[in-house]
């Protein structure tokens, strides 16, 4: 049979509220709006840049050769992906620097 062990030692949600009263509540969103805007921008670029480069170059640059136009579209998709990774790393570094400055400030 299943029994509850240590049920008298467990804290209820009401008991835990008394412990957390001293700390201010953090109501900021989990993901900042600037991160969402960057994600949407790169998503738009990931869709439009490869397709646009394919259709713009298939007849004008490559003379109807869809293999080269497809290769250019794949290259453009990789350019967008690498750009997103670079921007994400820079954003993460600035966030870490801000956290470190806040820690030093609170000491």
Write the layout of secondary structure elements.
Elements: H1 13-20, H2 33-57, H3 66-106
Helix pairs in contact: 2-3
The helix count comes to 3
The ordered H/E elements are: HHH
How many strand elements?
Answer: 0
Radius of gyration in whole Å, from Cα? 26 Å
Report mean pLDDT, rounded to a whole number. 84
| Helical content class | 55-70%
Q: For the report, how would you describe the main beta sheet?
A: none
Structural class by helix and strand composition: mainly alpha
Residue fraction in strands: under 5%
| pLDDT < 50 stretches | none
Termini separation? 52 Å
Outline? elongated
Function: Required for the assembly of the V0 complex of the vacuolar ATPase (V-ATPase) in the endoplasmic reticulum.
Keywords: Cytoplasmic vesicle, Endoplasmic reticulum, Membrane, Transmembrane, Transmembrane helix
Transmembrane segments: 35-56, 68-89
Subcellular location: Endoplasmic reticulum membrane; Endoplasmic reticulum-Golgi intermediate compartment membrane; Cytoplasmic vesicle, COPII-coated vesicle membrane
What does this structure look like?
- The chain has 107 residues and is mostly helical.
- It has a domain at 33-102.
- Helix content is 69%, strand content 0%.
- It contains three helices and no strands.
- The termini are far apart.
- The mean pLDDT is 84.
How would you briefly describe this protein structure?
The protein has 107 residues and is mainly alpha-helical. It contains three helices and no strands. It is elongated.
Provide key terms for this protein.
107 residues; mainly alpha; Vma21; transmembrane helix; endoplasmic reticulum; transmembrane; cytoplasmic vesicle
């Amino acid at each position: 049979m299943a029994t509850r062990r240590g049920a008298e030692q467990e804290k209820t949600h009401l008991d835990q509220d008394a412990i957390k009263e001293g700390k201010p509540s953090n109501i900021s969103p989990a993901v900042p709006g600037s991160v969402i805007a960057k994600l949407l921008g790169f998503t738009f670029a990931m869709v439009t840049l490869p397709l646009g480069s394919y259709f713009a170059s298939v007849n004008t640059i490559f003379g109807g050769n869809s293999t080269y136009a497809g290769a250019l579209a794949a290259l453009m998709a990789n350019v967008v992906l690498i750009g997103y990774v670079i921007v994400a790393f820079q954003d993460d570094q600035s966030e870490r620097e801000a956290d470190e400055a806040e820690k030093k400030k609170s000491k």
